[in-house]
Here is the input.
Amino acid sequence: MPAMLTDVFRGHPIHLPHSHHQPDFTSLRELPDSYSWTPKDDILFAAAAAPSPPTAVDETIPFIDLDHPDAANQIGHACRTWGAFQIANHGVPLRLLQDIEFLTGSLFGLPVQRKLKAARSETGVSGYGVARIASFFNKQMWSEGFTITGSPLNDFRKLWPQLHLNYCDIVEEYEERMKKLASKLMWLALSSLGVSEEDVQWASLNSDSNWAQAALQLNHYPVCPQPDRAMGLAAHTDSTLLTILYQNNTAGLQVFRDDLGWVTVPPVPGSLVVNVGDLFHILSNGLFKSVLHRARVNQTRARLSVAFLWGPQSDIKISPVPKLVSPVDTPLYRSVTWTEYLQTKATHFNKALSMIRNHKEE
Ligand SMILES: O=C(O)CCC(=O)C(=O)O
Ligand SMILES: [Fe+2]
Here is the structure.
């Protein structure tokens, strides 16, 4: 019996000293020092201060129509160059996107004391709290989050004594749709590399689709008095195969490119952002980039996002597809399960990929 995602995370708790001391963001007129970031708090923070190269002004991640006959190649190209893209015609009803946005807004709009009733426990994963990556930084992030793994029923009952069943239905439907979409996107991307279902049998579309599991991460970035010095969510890559992100109509997500620096991903109503995660980078033998990204905040508008974090069950070993490894080379990475990878990430954070590389760069 494969472990559930909850168990996967529970085995590797990250201690969050601040999780029970979430400030009431709305009452702060000035950024407290503990929320004021400088380059020494995050080496990548400095990259934000550099003016973007003039050629890069309009450049951002590709926008792909899934109904386009060439969608697979466009996705493949986006995964190789950016590690991220936005999609239209993804088949997820607009009504459902509006519902999940409403749910997210309603959750974070609850009084702090109510939200804390569903606070993530010391060793747990699900529930209300600060970003999971908070323990890797000295400064605090200008955001609050809510993680859902498995059924949200118990937590939702504490948050909304009356309406929790309706909200559970929304989450269930959203996750169902996202699962199908994620698998479709993964196969479109793999097919662009000439990889077929025979090459990755555990993920075959014909196998029962229970090989995958997911978590839902709801994020809220409140209005911030001094956004230039604050950080909504610090730079990280996702530990997933793929992440599908819904963002409301407030900009904030940025992706990093060595040649362009930080690039904003503009919200496009009704569309979804797709990130390549570390496990897909490994599976593709490094051909697909796992995208470094972060969230900035702003002074006038609150921002909401919903990340569907998708990966394999814990008994599945992810290793580079043999077809993508040249016969004279060793695979770039050794094989890992999602559990093992999360363990490495919990210890080494943004250096986790280099820890499982087979040969180190010269
Ligand atoms: O809020 C966003 O745009 C990014 C969220 C994110 O990266 C995450 O939850 O992992
Ligand atoms: Fe992320």
